[in-house]
Amino acid sequence: MIDLEQVRKVAHLARLELEAGEEEQFTTQLNSILEYVEQLNELDTADVPPTTRAIEVSNIHRADQLETFGDRESLLSNVPDREDDFIKVPKIMEG
């Protein structure tokens, strides 16, 4: 069981400022989660292989291909500040 002091300690470590009502709410919610996990621990999973997801999926991606942009002037005409063929951005670091 998680008590109010443990919730306060975790909140402190996570740099969270919780109000008294939130502390009580999190205590109740965390205890409910732990009770559910305990129910799951009662299941026999000896013959169940470990998985990372419930269904098998694979990434759909395209190959990277270098392409030149056809109309450079059209692209650069939309930028707020430019110098020749370059886009100027605000300086964020000194030196």
Describe this entry's structure for a reader.
- With 95 residues, the chain is mostly helical.
- The chain has a domain at 1-43: Glu-tRNAGln amidotransferase C subunit, N-terminal domain (Histone, subunit A).
- 39% of the residues lie in helices and 4% in strands.
- The chain is built from three helices and two strands, in the order αααββ.
- It has a two-stranded antiparallel sheet with strand order 1-2.
- Strand 1 (82-83) and strand 2 (86-87) form a beta hairpin.
- The longest helix is centred in the N-terminal third of the chain and has 22 residues, at 20-41.
- It is flat, with a radius of gyration of 27 Å.
- The two termini are 55 Å apart.
List the helices and strands and how they pair.
Layout: H1 4-13, H2 20-41, H3 72-76, E1 82-83, E2 86-87
Antiparallel strand pairs: 1-2
Helix pairs in contact: 1-2
DSSP helical segment count: 3
Write down how many β-strands occur, each being a DSSP E stretch of 2 or more residues: 2
Give average pLDDT, whole number.
89
| Computed CA radius of gyration, to the nearest angstrom | 27 Å
Compute the separation of the termini in Å.
55 Å
Runs in which pLDDT lies below 50 for 5 or more consecutive residues are: none
Q: What name does CATH use for the topology of the domain at 1-43?
A: Histone, subunit A
CATH superfamily of the domain at 1-43: Glu-tRNAGln amidotransferase C subunit, N-terminal domain
- Assign a percent range to the helix content: 25-40%
Please describe the biggest sheet, giving its number of strands, its sense, and whether it closes into a barrel: 2 strands, antiparallel
SSE order: HHHEE
- Global morphology: flat
Output the CATH class name of the domain at 1-43. Mainly Alpha
How much β-strand is present in the residues? under 5%
From the 3D coordinates, which CATH architecture of the domain at 1-43 would you assign? Answer: Orthogonal Bundle
Query: Strand order of the main beta sheet, please?
Result: 1-2
Q: Which structural class should the secondary elements be placed in?
A: mainly alpha
